[in-house]
Write a structure and sequence with these properties.
Oligomer: single chain
Number of strands: 0
Helix content: over 70%
Largest sheet: none
Length: 81
Amino acid sequence: MKPYLFAMAIGLMVGAIYSLLGTRSPAPPAIALLGLLGMLLGEQAVPLAKRVLRGQEVALFWKTECAERVTGLPRPEDDTP
């Protein structure tokens, strides 16, 4: 039940932002797609920031974890013999 309430609260906040910006919902396709891209990148920003703060490898994490989620492309196979 908690995820549903959280999703509803986030939806209400986004609706309020749309209203403040004078954009009708559903948003025009370009605005909606940019919003979805922002959500995808924002979802990956927290784990990346945590790794940076811990001094861990970021490039490998992006390649193995984030890239597939953001681009929709399958994870690249390891080409090393």
